[in-house]
Design brief:
Low-confidence stretches: 171-201
Bound molecules: adenosine monophosphate
Distance between the termini: 11 Å
CATH superfamily: 7,8-Dihydro-6-hydroxymethylpterin-pyrophosphokinase HPPK
CATH architecture: 2-Layer Sandwich
Oligomer: single chain
Radius of gyration: 16 Å
CATH topology: Alpha-Beta Plaits
Number of helices: 6
Order of helices and strands: EHEEEHEEEHHEHH
């Protein structure tokens, strides 16, 4: 467990029913211990990068509040991908579900398992545009503005599909409930207390 942070998650899918898989992934992320979905972008259709003989992707970006460590969050997201039936097909190939940690507060991490911020952020329209939708002032840890990055990208434009079910149901406030709302959940520690007074459940 670590101090409460906002993490930004990129979601993508292009096999099966991609919209439904992304909706279910959002529910699964929100159900993880010590995690709560705070904001979700619209769902966008997007031509594939890499091999072109695969269906279009559906992409979205979500912000979550969490006291998981980045490594524990990655393990949890990989578990959600596996539960959705993901198996490796080919590099940049089709997938039932892809969950990436785009950012974790202002942390910069480079380990064999984890690179944060995700190295592809600044190049990808399907990451930048949905992220800016929920966080217009977003910056990378080096200070660069995502809005400036978006002006530089030349990859495919996105096609808006619809708002996510998560938002329409009004499960959470649209952007940031802050620590108070999180600490009202049974699985959230009281982040106002000293670290050693917190318990995971
Ligand atoms: P992918 O094919 O996108 O599911 O990514 C495969 C591997 O990338 C994962 O098993 C992770 O260990 C690694 N990886 C490195 N940085 C990240 C990140 N920021 N978010 C998700 N996976 C990452």
């Amino acid at each position: 467990m670590t101090a409460w942070q906002i993490a930004t998650i990129g979601l993508g899918a292009n096999l099966g029913d991609p919209v439904d898989q992304i909706e279910r992934a959002l529910e699964a992320i929100d159900s993880l211990p010590l995690c709560q979905v705070l904001a979700v972008s619209g769902l966008y259709a997007n031509p594939p990068i890499g091999p072109q003989d695969q269906p279009d992707y559906v992409n979205a970006v979500a912000e979550i509040g969490t006291t998981l460590t980045p490594e524990a969050l990655l393990r949890a997201l990989k578990g959600i991908e596996r539960a959705a039936g993901r198996s490796y097909i080919r590099h940049w190939g089709e997938r039932v579900l892809d969950l990436d940690i785009l950012a974790f507060g202002d942390r910069e991490i480079t380990t064999p398992e984890l690179t944060i911020p995700h190295p592809e952020i600044a190049k990808r329209h399907f990451v930048l545009a949905p992220w800016l939708e929920i966080r217009p002032e977003a910056r990378l840890p080096d200070g660069s503005r995502l809005a400036d990055c978006l002006e530089e990208v030349s990859d495919h434009p996105l096609r808006f599909l619809r708002l996510p079910r998560w938002q329409r149901q009004g499960v959470g406030p649209p952007i940031e409930p802050g620590v108070e709302a999180l600490s009202q959940r049974a699985d959230m520690p009281d982040s106002s207390g000293p670290p050693d007074s917190r318990s995971p459940s």
